[in-house]
Amino acid sequence: MIKNKNILMILPNGPDYVEFCSLFTKDNYTKLVYTEEEGYEFLNNNSDIISVVVLDVRLARESNYKYVDMICSEPQFASIPIIAVSPNPPTEEDMICLNMGISDFITPPCQWPLLSRRIYNAIRAKDSA
Questions:
Q1: CA end-to-end span of the chain, whole Å?
Q2: Which pTM was predicted?
Q3: Which of 53, 74, 116, 123 is the most interior residue, by most CB within 10 Å?
Q4: Is pLDDT larger for residue 1 or for residue 120?
Q5: Where are the alpha helices (DSSP H) in 1-129?
């Protein structure tokens, strides 16, 4: 379903997401960065080629959602959906992301067909907005 897309993944360095990341790299170009600052800088320089951003919610929480707010509020990023991801079920605090403009919230491990469909739907929804 989701093929040949440019995906920016902002995930902490560690074992939590190794399998999760491998799902994306099979059919897509994936840029993996380990901090929100790196992700924002990469997105700022490459927003025209990025189809979706996958962001670890723990990183967002640590910065008090600073970069989520920046990405969701800047017009140059308006067409890029952001999907929050966490190895744990979302907390009530994590729901802040949805109010800020996050397209979806996922918790790995995920079945690839479901994950692919949710990402495709987020991209399609942003494209039609």
A1: 21
A2: 0.88
A3: 53
A4: 120
A5: 18-25, 36-46, 57-62, 66-73, 96-100, 112-128
Return the pLDDT at 2.
Answer: 65
Contact (CB, 8 A) for 53 and 39: yes
- Residue 10: other Cβ atoms inside 10 A: 26
Contact 83, 54 (CB under 8 A): yes
Residues with Cβ within 8 Å of 99's Cβ and at least 6 positions away in sequence, in order, are none
Lowest mean pLDDT among 35-49, 81-95, 106-120: 106-120
> What angle in degrees, to the nearest 10, is found between the helix axes of 36-46 and 66-73?
10
Peptide bond into 90 cis (omega under 30): no
Whole-number Cα distances in Å, 96 to 54, 65, 100: 16, 8, 6
> Taking 90 as the threshold, does the pLDDT of residue 34 lie above it?
yes
Structure tokens at 3: 């093929």
The token pair that represents 86 in the structure block: 């966490």
Could you tell me the two tokens for 124?
């399609």
